[in-house]
Amino acid sequence: MILTTHAIVGGAIASxxxxxxxxxxxxxxxxxxxxxxxxxxxxxxxxISISHGHRNSFALSKPLLWDLGIIAIDxxxxxxxxxxxxxxxxxxxxxxxxxxxxxxxxxxxxxxSLYPREPLKTxxxxxxxxxxxxxxxxxxxxxxxxxxxxxVAAIAVALR
Length: 160
Ligand SMILES: [Zn+2]
Fold this sequence. Notes:
The chain starts with a helix and ends with a helix. By secondary structure, the chain is mainly alpha-helical. The chain contains seven helices and no strands.
């Protein structure tokens, strides 16, 4: 799933258990692996790859800057939507932390490509095992993620 979807799910989890921050952050982190198992479509990156054995680098290039820009927009949109939909003045910090925890396994894949050692190695194996092997076509891949995020948000709002 894209980072926005992961952040929304993380924010929804925070809204359901704001008085249990450690549990909420752990559940948000774990949710990443669960929802990555759902068939979906990820956007292509030009220079960053998490394919097996690929080693990324920080050598500045236009494709890398493009990828970082797309990732930043995706992550910030997710964080903003999670805060907008689930946060109150007293829960903004836990909602933000859970949105970030929901996103975290993906940047940790990038970290693994730079530093392929434990505990990132085991986390990467888990991520690969959980992640769907089925990429949807563009339209159903995008629409299903929007529908999934809206349904999760609606359920979380209804349960509060
Ligand atoms: Zn992932």
